[in-house]
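Q: Could you predict the 3D structure of ATP phosphoribosyltransferase?
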Amino acid sequence: MASTTVARFSLIFYAPPSAVLACKSAIFKAGAGCYPGPGNYTECCWSTMGTIQFRPRDAANPHIGRVGALEETPEVRVEALCVGEDIARKAVAALKIVHPYEEPAYHVIKLEDF
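A: Sure. Here are the predicted C-alpha coordinates for ATP phosphoribosyltransferase:
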Protein backbone atom coordinates (compact mmCIF):
# COMPACT_ATOMS: atom_id res chain seq x y z
CA MET A 1 0.00 0.00 0.00
CA ALA A 2 1.52 3.33 -1.09
CA SER A 3 1.80 6.12 1.43
CA THR A 4 0.06 9.43 0.66
CA THR A 5 2.02 11.31 3.31
CA VAL A 6 3.65 14.47 1.97
CA ALA A 7 7.43 14.45 2.34
CA ARG A 8 8.76 16.66 5.11
CA PHE A 9 12.12 18.41 5.18
CA SER A 10 14.10 20.31 7.78
CA LEU A 11 15.65 23.53 6.46
CA ILE A 12 18.63 24.58 8.57
CA PHE A 13 20.51 27.79 7.87
CA TYR A 14 23.03 30.06 9.55
CA ALA A 15 22.95 33.87 9.50
CA PRO A 16 24.42 36.86 11.32
CA PRO A 17 22.08 38.12 14.06
CA SER A 18 21.28 41.29 12.10
CA ALA A 19 19.93 39.22 9.16
CA VAL A 20 17.92 36.57 10.99
CA LEU A 21 14.58 38.40 10.99
CA ALA A 22 14.70 39.04 7.22
CA CYS A 23 15.75 35.44 6.55
CA LYS A 24 13.00 33.99 8.73
CA SER A 25 10.39 36.30 7.17
CA ALA A 26 11.45 35.19 3.68
CA ILE A 27 11.28 31.45 4.39
CA PHE A 28 7.96 31.81 6.24
CA LYS A 29 6.48 33.74 3.29
CA ALA A 30 7.61 30.83 1.08
CA GLY A 31 5.65 28.39 3.28
CA ALA A 32 8.32 27.05 5.65
CA GLY A 33 7.60 26.75 9.36
CA CYS A 34 4.03 25.48 9.00
CA TYR A 35 2.83 22.48 10.97
CA PRO A 36 -0.31 20.98 9.44
CA GLY A 37 -2.93 19.27 11.53
CA PRO A 38 -5.30 20.23 14.29
CA GLY A 39 -2.96 22.87 15.76
CA ASN A 40 -2.40 24.69 12.46
CA TYR A 41 0.77 26.46 13.62
CA THR A 42 2.70 28.83 11.36
CA GLU A 43 6.05 30.67 11.53
CA CYS A 44 7.55 27.90 13.67
CA CYS A 45 11.30 27.53 13.98
CA TRP A 46 14.06 26.78 16.44
CA SER A 47 17.14 28.95 16.73
CA THR A 48 20.31 29.13 18.76
CA MET A 49 23.41 31.31 18.89
CA GLY A 50 26.85 30.03 18.05
CA THR A 51 30.16 31.14 16.62
CA ILE A 52 31.29 30.70 13.04
CA GLN A 53 34.92 30.62 11.94
CA PHE A 54 36.14 31.22 8.38
CA ARG A 55 39.03 32.63 6.36
CA PRO A 56 38.02 34.37 3.08
CA ARG A 57 40.32 33.48 0.19
CA ASP A 58 41.58 35.91 -2.47
CA ALA A 59 38.47 35.66 -4.70
CA ALA A 60 36.02 36.16 -1.80
CA ASN A 61 33.84 39.21 -1.21
CA PRO A 62 33.09 38.74 2.50
CA HIS A 63 30.11 40.39 4.19
CA ILE A 64 31.98 40.08 7.49
CA GLY A 65 35.77 40.08 7.92
CA ARG A 66 38.44 40.61 5.29
CA VAL A 67 40.27 38.55 2.69
CA GLY A 68 43.06 36.44 4.16
CA ALA A 69 42.15 37.08 7.80
CA LEU A 70 40.76 34.36 10.08
CA GLU A 71 37.39 35.55 11.39
CA GLU A 72 35.22 34.39 14.29
CA THR A 73 31.82 36.01 14.68
CA PRO A 74 28.42 35.28 16.27
CA GLU A 75 25.91 33.51 14.08
CA VAL A 76 22.40 32.14 14.54
CA ARG A 77 21.36 28.62 13.49
CA VAL A 78 17.69 28.43 12.48
CA GLU A 79 15.72 25.25 11.77
CA ALA A 80 12.24 25.14 10.21
CA LEU A 81 9.96 22.42 8.88
CA CYS A 82 9.06 22.39 5.18
CA VAL A 83 6.06 20.24 4.26
CA GLY A 84 6.60 19.17 0.67
CA GLU A 85 9.62 19.39 -1.60
CA ASP A 86 8.11 22.39 -3.38
CA ILE A 87 8.01 24.36 -0.12
CA ALA A 88 11.60 23.36 0.71
CA ARG A 89 12.79 24.55 -2.71
CA LYS A 90 10.83 27.82 -2.46
CA ALA A 91 12.18 28.48 1.04
CA VAL A 92 15.79 27.92 -0.06
CA ALA A 93 15.29 30.22 -3.06
CA ALA A 94 13.81 32.92 -0.79
CA LEU A 95 16.65 32.50 1.71
CA LYS A 96 19.26 32.98 -1.02
CA ILE A 97 17.63 36.25 -2.11
CA VAL A 98 17.67 37.93 1.32
CA HIS A 99 20.71 36.39 3.00
CA PRO A 100 23.65 38.85 3.15
CA TYR A 101 26.42 36.29 2.49
CA GLU A 102 27.62 35.65 -1.05
CA GLU A 103 26.91 31.96 -0.40
CA PRO A 104 24.67 31.22 2.58
CA ALA A 105 25.30 28.02 4.54
CA TYR A 106 22.20 25.82 4.72
CA HIS A 107 21.13 22.17 4.82
CA VAL A 108 17.93 20.52 3.65
CA ILE A 109 17.32 17.17 5.31
CA LYS A 110 14.51 14.80 4.30
CA LEU A 111 12.70 13.56 7.38
CA GLU A 112 11.42 10.02 7.87
CA ASP A 113 7.94 9.25 9.20
CA PHE A 114 8.18 6.35 11.67
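Q: Anything worth pointing out?
A: Residues 38 and 95 are 28 Å apart (CA to CA).
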